[in-house]
Specification:
Helix content of chain A: 40-55%
Largest sheet of chain A: 8 strands, parallel, barrel
Strand content of chain A: 15-25%
Number of helices of chain A: 13
Number of strands of chain A: 12
Oligomer: homodimer
Order of helices and strands of chain A: HEHHEHHEHEEEHEHEEHEHEHEHH
Largest interface: A-B, 68 and 68 residues
Distance between the termini of chain A: 32 Å
Structural class of chain A: alpha/beta
Shape of chain A: globular
Chain lengths: 311, 311
């Protein structure tokens, strides 16, 4: 899967993943009104407006980007109708040829992790029938329970050409509370210890670019740590949140890429899906504002990577 | 909420939580056949059999136990129909007067954690309508992202009388891979550091028994660590998985309780919901086997606690 993701990043010359994290206040009134007219002010109505919105975003920019990352929490808070919208969003994005990263951050003991693996990247068996369920291409996972919580995903990953990103150094301001704790004789921060494990876990899953299907989440909000991790995890691809609304600039995250300008995919959610509301794109249609935001981000990243290369 | 849980444990004289983690192979044939006849071998059919099964378990034992803990992964792998069964299970168990612990192990950055908080213990607002969604009484959370991933649950917890258990020392054999790493100058295991944070985070949420609404998950499979944590976290209530199928005995987990015999609730899943298939309960009906398994566990825990008290 990592090869497919990198192929697509290179083909579109754009290491951007759009975070499909809808909120009611980000959705144009006419989309909401239509949904609420049909379903009332219900969870169904909200979920319907999410789906209309996501499809409009995908229709606007899927030729420009390699991947999308729907954050399942945004859907889960709208219950069963929300999760139906999540599932349909995944399906629609895949139909558009995009790699879909399900931002689920699941984690549990082995027998339970197996159920998450089945539900998100595997297939569920009922009698002699077999059903893909949420069926994202890649998922995010949390490492607190160790390899036992990750391993159950491996057979499904291999069999169905899927991938994962494991939380390493997250983008939130207080992520260091646990992740920066200094560990062992070497006094390495926990995120480095976790990073090295991720690199090792991915060893059997390396593809043609040298990167593995077992990636790491490395927040753009920590430039130095990103640069360090890039050096010590040469075969680990990074999913980089934190650009834009969370405060990180393109320069901050340039260190997450290697000398060839690959090695990371950068997420933006509000910066893209909320572009139509931004004063910066005033006067543009929903479609044009969204496209322009993607093009601006692409250019911003390209410039920062070019500058980093020249140094 | 912790007061309500402890009140109920004391009233029923039973610190047992039944893990409602259905699997198709644990469900009696007649329940499955009925569901598959109605829905075919579909996700809907499987989910329907889960719900029938859970209701039968709840009908059999809800007078004997204070709480149930549905593991959401078991439902999530059956997609939207599975999650409908989860939601209906929560509703039915609450109707029976039980405290429902949603074993969801969610975690994310603050703005996203807020969405999980809303969906699981809060209410979702659509227009002027407000909907409780999954609406468990308590949830399990993962600490890897720090307090920022926990805090968004606090206002909902307070407003709606809810609670949480944060992963501290999990029951899986390899949980120590991350959790036992020695941290800082004091070379304390990470789970101790996390445990102390949980104790501190819970300080504003203490109830009449001295325990807080911010509990910890402490695996029964680590007796010494449980005993240590009980001592250094005097105000933190423990959710204790690992008894029975995962190998821990009542003696192993006695140290998770304080001298008054409170301080923990012990989970059993397969040992109870799979009792009807066990040779130990051969000849008993589904209902009687389930009840007997609960009564046996209750007796087993009481004896171990009595022995620990005498020492």
């Amino acid at each position: 899967m990592i090869d497919r993701l990198i192929d697509s990043i290179l083909a579109k010359n754009n290491p951007t993943v759009v975070g499909l994290d809808p909120r009611l206040n980000l959705i144009p009134d006419h989309m909401k009104e239509e949904a609420f007219e049909k379903y009332g002010f219900t969870l169904e109505g909200a979920a319907e407006s999410f789906l209309t919105f996501n499809k409009a975003i995908l229709d606007a920019v899927s030729d420009l980007i390699p991947a999308v990352k729907p954050q399942i929490a945004m859907y889960e808070q709208f219950g069963v109708p929300g999760l139906m919208a999540f599932q349909e969003t995944v399906r629609y994005a895949k139909e558009k040829g995009l790699v879909v990263i399900g931002d689920i951050k699941r984690s549990d003991i082995a027998s339970t992790a197996e159920a998450y693996a089945i539900g998100h990247i595997g297939t569920t068996v009922v009698g002699e029938q077999e059903y893909p369920v949420f069926d994202e291409d890649m998922v995010t996972l949390n490492p607190y329970l160790g390899i036992e919580s990750i391993e159950p995903f491996f057979p499904h990953m291999k069999k169905r050409d899927k991938g994962m990103f494991i939380l390493c150094k997250t983008s939130n301001p207080g992520g260091g509370e646990i992740q920066d704790l200094l560990v062992g004789e070497e006094k390495e921060p926990l995120y480095v210890v976790v990073g090295k494990k991720i690199e090792a876990w991915g060893e059997p899953f390396r593809g043609k670019y040298g990167f593995s299907d077992v990636g790491a989440v490395v927040g753009a909000t920590y430039p130095e740590q990103g640069t360090t991790l890039r050096k010590i995890l040469p075969h680990t691809f990074f999913l980089v949140p934190g650009y834009g609304a969370q405060g990180a600039t393109a320069k901050d995250l340039a260190g997450c890429f290697n000398e060839d300008g690959i090695g990371a995919i950068v997420n933006s959610s509000r910066g893209i899906i909320g572009a139509w509301k931004s004063p910066k794109y005033e006067g543009l249609s929903f479609e044009d504002a969204t496209r322009q935001a993607v093009l601006d981000m692409k250019e911003d990243l390209a410039q920062a990577l070019e500058e980093a290369r020249r140094k």
